[in-house]
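Notes, p. 3: input format for complexes.
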Amino acid sequence: MQEMYNYTHSETETNGLIYCRSLSKIYGYGEHRTEALKQVNVNLAQGEITAIMGPSGCGKTTLLQCISGMDDLTEGEIWFRGKAVHRMGEDEKDALRAESMGFVFQNYNLIPVLTAVENVELPMLTKGYSRKKSRSIALDALGKVGLFDRQNHKPSQMSGGQQQRVALARAIVHKPLIVWADEPTGALDRQTSDKMLDLMDYLNKEEGMTFVIVTHDPHVAARAGRIIYMDSGSIIHEKRTVTER
Ligand SMILES: Nc1ncnc2c1ncn2[C@@H]1O[C@H](COP(=O)(O)OP(=O)(O)OP(=O)(O)O)[C@@H](O)[C@H]1O
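Output follows (245 residues plus adenosine-5'-triphosphate):
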């Protein structure tokens, strides 16, 4: 039987993208056992920028990795536009990520032997687009992040800020529904970090892209419409700084 999620009226009204129920994640056993997520409930709406904050080790990265399907839950339910991610096998989760998600990490995660444009076109090639179409869309994405003229540079020939902008171009090139960013500005100075945040803002406003950003930096969180605060594996508080669209 087709699985159904019992959406409430208000959830369907608020542009729901992801619903998570009772997420639990336990690493290790015995004396090494860590309960990284404790019965976390969270919904994410399309078109929002959400920041996740909290002290080191409170479960921010674990939450991001579990909701995005990069890591397995111990228990709980994740619904992505009505699809039960928690029941998916690895291949199905890979396909969901390739189709609908983009990722930006603190250490950029670019492939060192590839040029900027080759790094950016990878998600398009994975999605099955032709080389020609992938190249043209990748160049367009590089243009959006202001790096068209660096298309043939390898990561080692670019600054940290430029590499992170390439990573952002790679994350958005296939027009994902949601971009997950884990400390995206952690290795950047304030000015370069502001440029990254301006770009995310632009992509959010102009293209309706949804961002979830794990950060320690209040300056970064101040740019989000919603801030979720975690402690010891739980969401303890949340704050909205702008009215919902
Ligand atoms: N692969 C793992 N194996 C065992 N324990 C882990 C693993 N990954 C994370 N943990 C533990 O789970 C808890 C949550 O870790 P997580 O990385 O999610 O925290 P965080 O809030 O992102 O921390 P930080 O801000 O320092 O990056 C921590 O106690 C951590 O030590």
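Residues 27-28, 34, 36, 54, 56-62 surround adenosine-5'-triphosphate (CB under 6 Å).
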